[in-house]
Amino acid sequence: MSGLEEAEWESINVLLLMHGLKPLSLVKRTDMKDLIIFDKQSSQRMRENLKTLMEETSRQQNMIRELIETNKQLKNELQLQQRRAADQEQRANDLEQIMESVKSKIGEMEDESLNRVCQQQNKIKELQKEHKVLQAKCEHYEKKQMEQQETIASLQKDIYTLTKEDEERVITRNRVFSYLCKRVPHTILDRQ
Questions:
Q1: Exposed/middle/buried for 61, CB within 10 Å: 0-12, 13-18, 19+?
Q2: 152-191: per-residue pLDDT in tens?
Q3: What is the Cα–Cα distance from 186 to 180, expressed in whole angstroms?
Q4: Which residue in 47, 154, 177, 192 is a FRET match for 30, CA 20 to 30 A apart?
Q5: Which residues form a coiled coil (predicted)?
Q6: What's the pLDDT tens digit per position in 20-38?
Q7: Which runs of consecutive H residues, i.e. helices, occur in the chain?
């Protein structure tokens, strides 16, 4: 075995050890009883095959490591997306509750507004009735006042007439008395 072959086999052994495999033993004895001998071409092919196998194994292990890493990243991404989805769902639920609360509040406000409108309409009707009653009372009192004014005017006229008549009576009486006093002589006592 040449020094180059021996060096190649040593590098193969290093690769085997790196992959957790047992190394091959290189024999320099003349006792060939327990040995299988390959020719140089077969030995060369075997070295190339082992080297290719080790390289392929390394490549696959790298791929497996990359796949594991990618898988971890995907799991992390999935967990992140799941957390985001859960957050979004929670936000949606919160918004839905807020919407329900707002709808409920709007319904209450509409009911209150409707009740207020009904109360105001009832109040307006009551005030209109009251207005009609007061208007009727006003008309009644105005009529009564006019009647009273007519009565007062009539009474004032009567009082004026009576006063005039009374004044005329007094004047007439005084004239008669004066006339009588001039015609018949009386004592002072009679005049009084």
A1: exposed
A2: 999 999 999 999 999 998 999 888 888 887 776 655 555 5
A3: 10
A4: 47
A5: 40-158
A6: 777 777 666 566 665 556 6
A7: 3-18, 40-183, 188-191
Structural Rg of the chain based on CA atoms: 70
Q: What is the pLDDT of residues 79-129, one digit of tens each?
A: 999 999 999 999 999 999 999 999 999 999 999 999 999 999 999 999 999
Type of residue numbered 97: Q
Q: How far apart are CA 110 and CA 104, in angstroms?
A: 10
Whole-angstrom distance, CA of residue 162 vs CA of residue 181: 28
Task: Specify the residue for token string 């009372």.
Answer: 137
Lookup result for tokens 């004032």: 156
* Per-residue pLDDT, 94: 95
Token pair, residue 162, equals 């009576």
Distance (Å, whole) CA 120 – CA 127? 10
- Give me the phi and psi of 146, to 5 degrees please: -60, -45
